[in-house]
Structure formats: C-alpha cells, structure tokens
Design goal:
The complex is a heterodimer of chains A (114) and B (111). In chain A, the strands form two sheets. In chain A, strands 2, 4, 5, 6, 9, 10 and 11 form a seven-stranded mixed beta sheet that branches. Chain A has a four-stranded antiparallel beta sheet with strand order 1-3-8-7, with no helix packed on it. Chain A contains no helices and eleven strands. Chain A is mainly beta and 114 residues long. Chain B is mainly beta. In chain B, 0% of the residues lie in helices and 53% in strands. In chain B, the strands form two sheets. In chain B, strands 2, 4, 5, 9, 10 and 11 form a six-stranded mixed beta sheet that branches. Chain B is globular and about 45 Å long. Chain B starts with a strand and ends with a strand. The chains are: A mainly beta (114), B mainly beta (111). Chains A and B meet through strand 4, strand 5, strand 9 and strand 10 of A and strand 5 and strand 10 of B.
Chain lengths: 114, 111
Amino acid sequence: DGGITQSPKYLFRKEGQNVTLSCEQNLNHDAMYWYRQDPGQGLRLIYYSQIVNDFQKGDIAEGYSVSREKKESFPLTVTSAQKNPTAFYLCASSLTGIAKNIQYFGAGTRLSVL
Amino acid sequence: RKEVEQDPGPFNVPEGATVAFNCTYSNSASQSFFWYRQDCRKEPKLLMSVYSSGNEDGRFTAQLNRASQYISLLIRDSKLSDSATYLCVVNSPGNTGKLIFGQGTTLQVKP
C-alpha cells in the first residue's frame, strides 16, 4: 500500500544524545515536511524539502537537522541542542510544494526525554 | 495575534446534533484552506478542502468568507464517531507548500 512510514513509534532520548527519526514515503511525492506537535497546540513546521538535495528551515528549526538524499526519505535528527524535545513528531508529504497540494501524514513518532 | 485562530472547545453535543466550528486567519494572501481531523494520539487526516463557493461532503459543509478571513465547518446529524479534534489549516502565502495549523477544536459527541 502507498503511504508514509515513520519509525520508531516511540523514542526515548538521554540527555546530550542525538536521535534520528525516520520518514519514508512511496507516494512519489516531491515535497516532504517535518512538524512538531505539543499537547493542546497546533502543528509547527520544523523543516521542509521541495526537492531532493534541498531543504529549508521552518518556524522552529533550532536544535534540529535534516537531509534529503533520496526522494523517498527525509530523516530528522533531534540534536542535543534541542533542550525541550518531548513532543509528537509528524512527517508529511505532498505531490509538489505548491499551495493547493494536500499534505498526507505519517503516524508520527512520540519522543520523550529520559 | 495567531495566524490561524480557533476556539479550542471542547464542544460537547448529543448524537444527532448540528455543530459549527469557526476559524479566522490573518493573512489575506492565503489561497488554500483545509479542514483536517485528528483523533486522539493519531496523525491528522484531511477531512475536506474548502472552496470559495462553499462545498459539502455528506454531513459536512465548509464555507469560506475571504472578505472576513473566516472559515467554517458545519457537521449535521453528529455521530459518536465524529468525536475528534478538527484542525483549521491555511496555506502560507509564497507558494512554498507550507501550511499553518490552528490549534484545533475538540468535539465530543455523547450518546
């Protein structure tokens, strides 16, 4: 089935540790996005990529890094510089990065700090 | 002022009721509008796009008022399965594909 796969579903980070969240899509979408959701809050954009080997910072990029080496994959690294990483992380993709294209989401990764 | 504002609720309604959610957005240059549904601890899923002329999908009707920068969602004959958080979503002008999400309105349908 076509879709967006995020792994792991749950992740625990120790102080000072970098962790990487995986996002893979087989929808042949050009654009991919990472969001963070805190309880009772809307989604906030961390990074987005409209094409392979290119990505842009979103509204809350500090403490995060990404890569887009393949069309299907857009991993997010939560670095030790992110002091409050506990949140629900959602990856999305869309056909292209234009206004009218609908974004589809993966099932998310819940990150907690040990 | 938030870019997309919604009343967080919760809205508690009996089965069969009609309920309406409202949303305002701040940037008049926004071009695309959506309602997403998010179940507890799940990912958001597209409920419907919102068109200028208004559009309907079964029990759901969405309206857009560009002059007032206002979007609405009407749910008729509420079902228990409609209980969820409804996210108002607006595109960020500039054709980057970026979306701006409201914090969501929680609906609880009671038997």
